[in-house]
Design a protein that fits this description.
Pfam families: SpoIIE (PF07228). It contains 16 helices and 21 strands. The protein is of the alpha+beta class. Among the domains are: about 200 residues, Galactose-binding domain-like (Jelly Rolls, Sandwich); about 220 residues, 4-Layer Sandwich (Phosphatase 2c, domain 1), CATH 3.60.40. Helix 7 runs antiparallel to helix 12 and helix 8 packs antiparallel against helix 9.
Length: about 725
């Protein structure tokens, strides 16, 4: 019972006491290796070790012993034994008083006191009451690890397996149906068993015994009970194994189609291992402790370790914080122990037990860590573990007859609940992963749609940009042509006169500037100078400049200075260019007299060479193109040799530096103040240098135009 209970605890499967449960269901009972007998285990063991008995009492077999529910007559396993082989030992009257008394189980303790090479004879006398004589009685083979011939009163009545004195020709007994014997008319019956186990060393090492055990029972009852048990046990195991295989296949297919979820693979292999253990337990139970059990036990020892290794691997995969290296070490250690057990199955049982204990501790540790971290859905796994533990407790109580119940069904239900909870947990995790993937896919689609929309917008903007660039290029070309046209309309150089030294400089802020300068020389030698500044820049400013130039040359010699300003203002106003105006300075130079008229321009600076001072000439007036009849003013200025007159647009004094400070008229005056002895061109150069140093080489924000007149000769 203890060994089978250990299998329950370690392999999560059905305990091998199920034949008793199935027999109860069919109102029949069959005997298993763990059945409790009227003879205690301690007495059984002590008798097997007691070789000094001189006499073995004859057991009495009565019909009343069959009145119990199990319909079994329990025969003590202490028989007389003699190693070797002699057919004469089968005779009913043979004197066996010198034989040893030993347990037919041939345990390790028994064999330690025997010199046995695998073949020997057992004898036992029974006193059979008349009610049992002359009718079939079942010989219940509770254990049989070899082949034997059974003699009743000197006559061979049964051969269990195929007996041979040659070990290689022996075929061990493996039938499950109880054979029948019929006692003769005498009360005293002698049963002799000629027994051989050529593999006694292996069976003793692996199973702990090498012999047999016989009981008697009601033949009809046990024949039908054996049949019913085989049907029930086979059906229930096939059903249970089928369910496990379905779980294993489903999760393997999930892994096959979604290899990222490796825990489905570990769970599938774990369940497949339980299937193997369940099948081995089924085969062990159906073999009824014949020699076939030995190979099943050998495989079982390896399977138990591997099932728990896979269980540990599975629980590690449930914990995202578990170390993969540590999990691999556990796997390799389990494989190494399994390999050693395969090579040395009998001598390394202790290693298997230690490994199983450590693996159970590791599985419980992993489950505890998962529960401790309170991972989502872990309550499902915890519920399955709780049901499984409760099932183990109930199984233990049933085995110790504290409560009534079916151990098989309890363990099937408990292990099934554990596997079912694990499957639900994995399915829930898989569904959650799929849901996350769907959400991510939805987000990706939305992002893709936004990206496509953005790409469409970007392409539209790119097209617009290219169209705009093309349009700008076209306009730039047009403006460049307009600028070239504008510059072509400006004088290439200033006139050279006997009285005046003239120099001019203009820098536009855009392709087509709004500044304008011009001159006209009359027949009498007088010179009219013009310097203007149209509001704004670009094409409209260029049109204003062109119109102003046209008016200037049309009116310069026909009217006086003030009349020309008024007529030009009226003409520009008629152009109907909204918010476009023209500032203008007109200087009519007649020998040493200058007539100055200003319309919306900065002050004119006059350097007096005699006093070496700079004076501002400020004449306030609206720009041209505004009020039709504005009363412009004019000022006459007499100049001397060396005097300098500076006319400029507002782009020069309003030039900014890096600190957003304007150059200002004062700094222009400083340059002019130091212009004594310089030509008009030199003065322009100094003003240009001052402007460039002030702006730091940056392009101006407004057009800059300056015109310098220096008096060379005074008439």
């Amino acid at each position: 019972m203890v060994s089978k209970l250990l299998i329950i605890l370690l392999a999560f499967t059905v305990q091998t006491g199920a034949e008793a449960d199935s027999a109860e269901a069919q109102d029949t009972l069959s005997i298993s290796a763990d059945q409790d007998f009227p003879i205690s285990l301690e007495q059984d063991l002590s008798d097997s070790l007691f070789f000094g008995l001189d006499e073995l009492e004859t057991e009495i077999v009565t019909n009343e012993q069959l009145t119990d529910d199990d319909r079994i007559i329990y025969i003590r396993d202490q028989w007389k034994f003699m190693a070797g082989d002699n057919r004469a030992w089968a005779a009913a009257g043979y004197d066996d008083s010198g034989w040893d008394i030993i347990s037919t189980n041939l345990t390790s303790a028994d064999l330690s006191f025997l010199e046995w090479d695998g073949i020997g004879w057992f004898r036992k006398d029974l006193m059979v009451e008349p009610e049992l004589r002359g009718k079939p009685v079942a010989l219940i083979v509770d254990r049989h690890l070899g082949a034997s011939e059974v003699y009743l009163n000197g006559e061979k009545i049964l051969e269990l397996g195929e007996f041979s004195i040659y070990p290689e020709e022996v075929e061990t007994y493996s039938s499950g149906e109880p054979p029948v014997i019929v006692f003769s008319g005498d009360s005293l019956q002698t049963i002799a068993v000629r027994f051989i186990n050529p593999d006694y060393e292996q069976t003793n090492e692996l199973l702990g015994n090498s012999g047999f055990r016989f009981l008697l029972g009601d033949w009809e009852h046990h024949r039908s009970g054996t049949y019913n048990f085989a049907i029930f046990w086979t059906g229930s195991n096939l059903f249970y194994i089928g369910i496990l295989l379905a779980f294993s296949l489903i999760h393997f297919l999930i892994f096959f189609f979604y290899p990222v979820e490796k825990r489905n693979l570990y769970f599938s292999l774990f369940v497949l291992g339980i299937v193997l253990v369940s099948y081995l337990l089924y085969r062990i139970e159906m073999s009824r402790f014949t020699i076939d059990v030995m190979e099943y036990y050998r495989i079982m020892m390896m399977a138990e370790v591997m099932v728990l290794v896979l269980a540990a691997r599975f629980t590690h995969s449930l914990d995202p914080e578990s170390s993969g290296f540590y999990s691999n070490i556990v796997l390799l250690a389990g494989l190494a122990v399994t390999a050693l057990i395969a090579i040395f199955p009998g001598t390394l049982i202790f290693l298997r037990d230690i490994t199983i204990f450590l693996l159970l501790i590791e599985i419980l540790r992993s489950l505890f860590m998962i529960l401790y971290r309170r991972k989502s859905g872990v309550w499902i796994l915890g519920s399955g573990v709780l049901i499984f533990v409760l099932g183990l407790i109930v199984s233990i109580l049933i085995n110790f007859e504290v409560i009534d119940g079916s151990v098989s069904f309890v363990n099937m239900g408990a292990s099934g609940a554990l596997i079912f909870s694990m499957s639900i947990y994995l399915s829930r995790e898989f569904a959650a992963t799929q849901k996350k993937l769907e959400n991510k896919l939805l987000e990706l689609r939305q992002m893709s749609q936004r990206a496509l929309k953005q790409e469409k917008i970007s392409k539209e903007r790119e097209i617009e940009k290219r169209l705009l660039e093309a349009e700008n290029e076209r306009k730039s070309n047009e403006l460049e042509e307009a600028r070239a046209l504008q510059l072509s309309m400006l004088p290439k150089k200033m006139p050279e006169t006997e009285n005046f030294d003239l120099a001019v400089f203009m820098q536009t802020a855009t392709e087509v500037g709004g500044d304008y300068y011009d001159y006209s020389v009359d027949q009498d030698g007088s010179v009219v100078l013009a310097l203007g500044d149209a509001t704004g820049h670009g094409m409209k400013a260029g049109i204003m400049v062109a119109a102003a130039k046209s008016y200037f040359h049309s009116l310069v010699h026909e009217t006086d200075t003030l009349t020309m300003l008024k007529r030009m203002s009226a003409g520009l106003k008629n152009l109907n260019m909204k918010l476009m105006y023209m500032g203008l300075i007109l200087v009519h130079c007649k020998k040493n007299k200058l007539e100055i008229a200003v319309a919306g321009m900065p002050p004119i600076l006059h350097y007096n060479s005699k006093t070496q001072t700079v004076n501002r000439i400020t004449l306030k007036g609206l720009p041209l193109g505004g009020k039709a009849k504005f009363p412009y003013k004019m000022e006459d200025l007499k100049v001397e040799k060396g005097d300098v007159l500076l006319m400029m647009s507002d782009g020069l004094p309003e030039l900014f530096n890096a600190d957003r400070e304007m150059l200002g008229i004062e700094r222009v005056e400083e340059v002019l103040q130091s212009s004594n002895g310089y030509s008009a061109g030199d003065i322009v150069t100094q003003l240009k240098q001052r402007a460039e140093s002030w702006s730091g080489g940056h392009s101006p924000h407004d057009d800059i135009t300056m015109m310098v007149l220096k008096v060379q000769k005074c008439l």
